[in-house]
Write a structure and sequence with these properties.
CATH architecture of the largest domain: 3-Layer(aba) Sandwich
Oligomer: single chain
Strand content: 5-15%
CATH class of the largest domain: Alpha Beta
CATH topology of the largest domain: Rossmann fold
Amino acid sequence: MPDIDPPPRDFAALKALITERAADLPKRLTQIASFALDNPDEIAFGTVSSIAEQADVQPSTLVRFSQAIGYQGFSDMQEVFRSRLRDRILNYGERIQQLREHALEASKPNVIFQGFCDSTEKSIASLREKLDPDELDQAVATLAQAQTIYLIGLRRSFPIASYMAYAFGKLGVRSILVDAVGGMAAEQLTFASPADAVLAISFTPYASETVALTQGAVARGVPVVSITDSPFSPLAQVSGQWIEVSEANFEGFRSMAATLTLAMTLTVAIAEKRGAG
């Protein structure tokens, strides 16, 4: 019998395997793959029934997914998700829960403030853990050599794109903010060419116009770098390069701290690289 590679025992390798296999999995198993990568803490701590309910699948589908990627069963795969959390010093979920339990002892605005501080810290910690220095270097190289950088970030991502446009202007880097004012987003991209580059930013639920504009740029041969939250994001699937940012949330409101940190990093690094060239 042919040798069968054992399934990964560390989260980074498991994540890479799920991303690699996702395109060949049936629809329901792909749905679980996307949920698992977007919600690793839920996979680590949940039960089969609670995870299945959140992912909108049958419990048996979780077992089939685990076996499809090489594990004996769900608990075998779940242990890998749990292993990534063992060395964490702070459990942010518990801290926020504690704040809620003591809400009567403190002002409600202060509880909210502390909750957002915790979610911001968690977002930054997650970005530190996930960011691949080589991917960052490649993104900077692509954007630094562009004649013009077109910035596409609508809806929730607009503050990030507009900040970068402001900073690029101060740093002498030519950019165009695609702001879609007057429904003119497509026209703002009219002159983008393969000598330029697009930086697209969008997160779940992805802004449809951002996705459409990015797809149009790709079709015209414009290099695209994206900032998004999952390998299953429509931006990740069409971009030449992409960087993953998963923002934590408090009471359903997601932090933008990690995304802004990455945006500031890209902006300054691009300007520095162009100046060094």
